Amino acid sequence: MNIPVLKIDQFQEEIPLNDFYANTFSNHIKLNKTLISRPHKHNFYLCVLFTEGSGIHEIDFNSYTINPGKVFFLRPGQTHFWKFDSKPEGFIFFHTQEFYELKFIEHKLNEFPYYYSFQNPPVLKLSTKKSSILKKKFQEIYSEYLKKRAFRELKIVSLVNTVYIDLLRRYTANIQQENRYSSNYLSILEKADILINEKFHEEKLPNFYARQLNITTKHLNRVIKETLNKTTSELISERVILEAKRLIVHSDENLANIASRLEFSDYSYFSKIFKSKTGLSPINFRKKYLNK
């Protein structure tokens, strides 16, 4: 069974608005329980603030604790699900890329660090004070969403942008000044990440991505090493292994077919590489995950 990709128009809404959705988290869970009761992907950007509750949020096979003051970010294509120990509360909104970028022509969603790279953590912990301030802004978004006022979309996207900027400041607050990289390096990293995400199935060598970016392989390696402390090959390999994990766990495909889909020469080579990166063979990884 393939992992479902949920679309924005599948979610039940009280006041429909093209390409945007907002709700309290408890109501969101109640209305859409059948959609989100198992691991799934989205075709949109999602942001959620928890004000109450506890549990685990698994995103691309990494587990994060849920507690008050936590903010989570999800970009299209990421696999996730929730598991709650106590009743959650908070606010959630999500939107398409077009909803935001058609109104902010000078700013793109993938310029926010929590959206532009799989390498950046999809979670932010806020202080009680900051969480209270942000809660009021989420409430304002939700209130505007429920009312059919003039210029509703413009107001909502303006409020969303304000939230994103506030979160950006908190997200980057702990980065030491000496670790802030040049805009050129960050631009290269962003473009490399997008390219790898698009081409990792068939292109697994650094020189391909360097050529696409019109830079030398040596320079691409330097940028990735200085910003992420990884090699380009490691970045490509991590994306391949992430996709392999998704397919192994969330599909019923034969493992040999998965190896073929990822364009490995044969299953034994795929299994060897997968085990070297995860410590488990593909079949044992599937068994361990499904028996959790």
From TrEMBL:
Top-level taxonomic group: Bacteria
- Name the species this protein comes from: Salegentibacter holothuriorum
Q: Which UniProt keywords apply?
A: DNA-binding, Transcription, Transcription regulation
| PANTHER family associated with the record | ARAC-FAMILY TRANSCRIPTIONAL REGULATOR (PTHR43280), TRANSCRIPTIONAL REGULATORY PROTEIN (PTHR43280:SF32)
Query: Which InterPro entries does the record cross-reference, listed alphabetically?
Result: AraC-bd, Homeodomain-like_sf, HTH-like, HTH_AraC, RmlC-like_jellyroll
Q: What is this protein called?
A: AraC-type DNA-binding protein
Q: Which PROSITE patterns match?
A: HTH_ARAC_FAMILY_2
Q: Name one GO molecular function term.
A: DNA-binding transcription factor activity
Stored SUPFAM superfamilies: Homeodomain-like (SSF46689), Regulatory protein AraC (SSF51215)
Query: What are the HTH araC/xylS-type domain coordinates in residue numbering?
Result: 190-288
Q: Does the keyword Ligase apply?
A: no
Pfam families named among the record's database cross-references: AraC_binding, HTH_18
